[in-house]
């Protein structure tokens, strides 16, 4: 009994140290790791395009360039649409400033009535907040420069991943020479399938959420309904946290463009309803059943990913967690961790095994 407990503690400690070491490596090397991780994710999504073209005798270089062009057009189209909408939004700066001032005056009167703070005291507090915001401007500019560096590296890395994919696969299989080759190849194949399912499902989900958001905003009659709908759908790619950020952003924009504060509340209500349907109907049906992760650990992974590598870390946390689960499920000593990462309770697992036919 004592030996069993010691073996359990040893295995638990080894896995915990491994996860902590992985997190530390990501934290200190995020500027290098994140571009390559994002490029690998997009390259895996584009791999079926390359395979399709190469089967029709198109050279590997041309196939990789065509796949990269398709991805560039898709991502560039979204960015162009958002930037054009932002430009239109900024052109209406006078109306926005007027609406914002009206809401600020209403808010100041409410604060004075409720908390007894005079307009002068409120102005002094706003001045202090502005100084804090200016202090954080330098770190924001630093984050933007890192983002530009990542974006500039992505196309090159994606092309190289697509071009050298067979060599990279052989390297991973040879790296684990002590394990059966078919076993390692199965892990690679399933990891690739999970990532492709997840990424394709996210794109379809984003389109559906954008359409539902736009319909609700158009019925509501607010300004910039398509821009806000698409922006909220893009932020929804960040699990759990993205829609919260989108709700705050859309409510603030609506406040600056609408004289009625009730419109901002209705915008948030629409986003909450859409999020409910997304979590319970759209996400399970569209993204598919292959990405089965524990909701609690998913939230923890998203928060840890954000702390280690910012917004990109949040986005990469779920596919990273899914790959870890695939590996853990195939190593006997790590199967309990795989079960912990999954979303099936022991009752569900035993019921499924009991109902499955023999042989």
Structure explained in plain terms:
The protein is mostly helical. It has three domains: 31-131 and 151-163, no CATH class; 197-289; 292-343, no CATH class. The protein is built from 14 helices and no strands. The protein has helices at residues 2-28, 30-55, 60-91, 93-115, 119-135, 137-163, 165-175, 181-220, 225-235, 241-257, 261-286, 295-329, 335-341, 346-355. Helix 8 runs antiparallel to helix 12 (295-329). The protein is globular, with a radius of gyration of 25 Å.
Quick structural gist:
By secondary structure, this protein is an all-alpha fold. It has helices at residues 2-28, 30-55, 60-91, 93-115, 119-135, 137-163, 165-175, 181-220, 225-235, 241-257, 261-286, 295-329, 335-341, 346-355.
Task: Please outline the helices and strands.
Blueprint: H1 2-28, H2 30-55, H3 60-91, H4 93-115, H5 119-135, H6 137-163, H7 165-175, H8 181-220, H9 225-235, H10 241-257, H11 261-286, H12 295-329, H13 335-341, H14 346-355
This entry's quaternary arrangement is single chain
How large is the radius of gyration?
Answer: 25 Å
Q: What proportion of the residues form beta strands (DSSP E)?
A: under 5%
Distance from first to last alpha carbon: 34 Å
Q: Which spans of ≥5 residues are poorly predicted at pLDDT below 50?
A: 132-142, 352-359
Overall structural domain count? 3
Sheet/helix structural class: mainly alpha
- Helical region count? 14
Largest sheet: none
Number of strands: 0
The amount of helix comes to over 70%
- Based on Cα principal axes, name the global outline: globular
Mean pLDDT: 77
The H/E string reads HHHHHHHHHHHHHH
């Amino acid at each position: 009994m004592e030996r069993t407990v010691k073996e359990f503690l040893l295995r638990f400690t080894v896995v915990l140290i491994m996860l902590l070491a992985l997190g530390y490596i990501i934290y200190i090397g995020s500027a290098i790791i994140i571009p390559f991780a994002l490029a690998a994710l997009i390259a895996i999504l584009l791999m079926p395009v390359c395979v399709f073209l190469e089967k029709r005798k198109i050279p590997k270089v041309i196939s990789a360039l065509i796949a990269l062009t398709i991805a560039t057009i898709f991502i560039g189209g979204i960015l162009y649409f958002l930037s054009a909408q932002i430009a239109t939004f900024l052109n209406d700066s006078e109306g926005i400033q007027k609406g914002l001032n009206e809401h600020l005056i209403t808010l100041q009167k409410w604060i004075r009535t409720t908390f007894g703070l005079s307009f002068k005291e409120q102005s002094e507090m706003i001045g202090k907040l502005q100084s804090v915001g200016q202090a954080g401007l330098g770190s924001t500019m630093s984050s933007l420069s890192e983002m530009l560096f990542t974006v500039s590296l992505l196309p090159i890395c994606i092309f190289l991943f697509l071009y050298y994919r067979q060599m990279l696969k052989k390297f991973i299989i040879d790296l684990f020479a002590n394990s059966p080759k078919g076993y390692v190849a199965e892990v690679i194949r399933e990891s690739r399938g999970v990532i492709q399912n997840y990424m394709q499902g996210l794109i379809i989900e984003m389109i559906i959420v954008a359409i539902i958001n736009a319909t609700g905003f158009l019925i509501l009659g607010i300004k910039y309904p398509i821009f806000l709908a698409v922006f909220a759908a893009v932020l929804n790619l960040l699990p759990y946290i993205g829609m919260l950020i989108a709700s705050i952003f859309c409510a603030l924009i609506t406040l600056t463009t609408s004289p009625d504060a009730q419109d901002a509340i209705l915008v948030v209500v629409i986003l909450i309803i859409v999020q409910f349907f997304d979590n319970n109907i759209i996400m399970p049906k569209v993204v598919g059943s292959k990405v089965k992760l524990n909701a609690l650990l998913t939230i923890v992974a998203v928060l840890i990913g954000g702390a280690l590598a910012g917004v990109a870390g949040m986005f990469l946390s779920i596919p990273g967690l899914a790959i870890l689960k695939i590996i853990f499920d195939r190593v006997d000593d790590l199967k309990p961790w795989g079960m912990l990462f999954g979303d099936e309770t022991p009752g569900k697992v035993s019921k499924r095994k009991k109902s499955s036919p023999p042989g």
